[in-house]
Structures are given as structure tokens and as C-alpha cells.
Write a structure and sequence with these properties.
Length: about 50
């Protein structure tokens, strides 16, 4: 069984399935104004990785 539908030709690029999943994750809780952290973006959070 050689099913290469989920493997991209270039491993640095996402598959359609990965793109769909990421879109779902990016837009979850958009319709809930009380969702935790909804008012924050990644740009609003402190970057503690650089010391």
C-alpha cells in the first residue's frame, strides 16, 4: 500500500490536510467573545525567549 497523498513533494511545505487543520486551529473560538486570550495576538505577548 503506497499512499503518498499526505506527503508533500517538498517537506518544507504543508499538505492540503495540514493547511485545513491549521485554518481550523487559527479560527477556533472566533465566534465566542469570552474565549480566553481572544483579545491577544502573538504580537501582544511578551517574548521571553531572548535574554
Amino acid at each position: 500500500m503506497d499512499d503518498n497523498t499526505s506527503k508533500p513533494e517538498d517537506a518544507t511545505k504543508p499538505t492540503d490536510e495540514q493547511r485545513e487543520m491549521q485554518a481550523e486551529l487559527d479560527h477556533q473560538n472566533e465566534d465566542d467573545p469570552n474565549a480566553p486570550g481572544l483579545h491577544q495576538s502573538r504580537n501582544d505577548l511578551a517574548d521571553e525567549s531572548r535574554r
